[in-house]
Design a protein that fits this description.
By secondary structure, this protein is mainly alpha-helical. It is built from 14 helices and five strands. Helix 3 crosses helix 5, helix 6 crosses helix 10 and helix 7 packs across helix 9.
Length: about 350
């Protein structure tokens, strides 16, 4: 086996442009990162058909990348997974046939990454992502009948639980909404996150034509993403409260908005919220993410299922893997995962074992 590098490779996110973008293949050959044409299922299937259990790790890179693109994975996810594949090749040997890789091989690689460099301990989340890569990569090989056994199938995916945020109380929410009435821009922002569950990046991407006020009693917001982000699978329509219609119309009028809903930086959005929080006299730290968390927990406490919550939040598999347990603990602090799931679904709702948009 070749020795792993002493330093971990830090993945570089490559933005996909309108024209094809070339970068060096992880094993030294230039490849096209994105193409206007050719990323079809038929193309990928034909490419994968040449692989066998004797194909090397290096030979799997391009077909694997194509498959990730076809499944709508983000640029960041693709870059991370390909970086992990290179590191696996550095450890096992890039010419190693995929059919000869067993559980001991992948376990030894993980142990090397975790303990092999004195004084360097990878973050738990980084190690969890590498387990996710292994499960994703070998599941793909198994699904394509390239390997008959998946050496990563029994790997345990352990994630550290982050500390729970201190949510807004009902009194805090009412104080914030009352204060925001003085400014239609602030009120629109708070409603989109606290009542619609949008992320900051989704708010920043909104355009006026994404907001449908044809039926004033049922205003709707369409969340869209640029093609270059590979996040079209997270697009959705969000039903807003009826009062949002008048709030948003007042915002358009007062601020002369006709295209981009919030033509500012995301830092400006933070400032808008911070001023409202200060004016409301709320002492705790309040962020747009905290408003989104409050929306999610309230939804669960009102009787929504976990599946409904995920759809409304537009979460990727990785984000859902982390967020589901967090929201369960916040919404039902005295219940076990089994009890809270049975209460919501009548049976336990399984948590996906693969993350990073599996």
């Amino acid at each position: 086996m070749q020795k792993d590098s002493e330093q971990e490779l830090r993945p570089i996110v490559v933005q996909i442009e309108e024209a094809p973008v070339e970068q060096d293949n992880l094993f030294g050959t230039p490849v096209v990162l994105d193409e206007q044409e050719g990323t079809s299922a038929a193309y990928a299937t034909a490419y994968q058909a040449i692989l066998t259990n004797q194909s090397s790790l290096a030979e799997c890179i391009e077909p694997y990348k194509k498959d990730l693109l076809l499944r709508g994975k983000s640029n960041y996810t693709i870059t991370c997974f390909l970086s992990d594949l290179k590191m696996l090749g550095d450890f096992l040997g890039r010419d190693t046939p995929v059919g000869r890789i067993n559980k001991d091989d992948v376990t030894n690689w993980l142990m090397k990454l975790k303990f092999g460099t004195p004084g360097v301990t990878p973050a738990p989340k980084t190690m969890a992502r590498r387990v996710t890569f292994l499960k994703n990569f070998f599941s793909w090989l198994e699904h394509e009948h390239i390997v008959s056994e998946n050496p990563a199938s029994s790997l345990a995916l352990e994630r550290p639980m982050p500390p729970l945020p201190e949510l807004l109380t009902n009194e805090d929410v009412q104080l914030l909404l009352d204060t925001a009435q003085d400014d239609a821009r602030c009120q629109s922002l708070i409603y989109l996150v606290l009542k619609g569950g949008l992320k900051k990046e989704e708010v920043m991407g909104l355009k006026v034509h994404h907001v449908d006020l044809v039926d004033p009693a049922v205003p709707m917001v369409t969340v869209r993403f640029a093609v270059s982000t590979n996040k079209q699978h997270r697009e959705r329509r969000v039903v807003m409260p009826p009062e949002f219609t008048s709030i948003f119309r007042r915002y358009l009028r007062d601020y002369h908005v006709n295209d981009i809903v919030f033509a500012c930086t995301d830092r400006n959005l933070n400032y808008i919220l911070a001023r409202a929080v200060k004016s409301a006299g709320i002492q705790k730290r309040v962020t747009l993410q905290l408003l989104r968390d409050t929306f999610a927990v309230q939804l669960l406490q009102d009787g929504a299922s976990f599946d409904t919550l995920r759809e409304k939040l537009g979460l990727s598999d990785e984000a859902w893997l982390e967020s589901k347990e967090k929201y369960r603990r916040l919404a039902f602090p005295n219940s076990s995962p089994e009890k809270s799931n049975r209460k919501k679904h009548g049976k336990q709702d399984e948590i996906p074992q693969e993350s990073v948009e599996q």
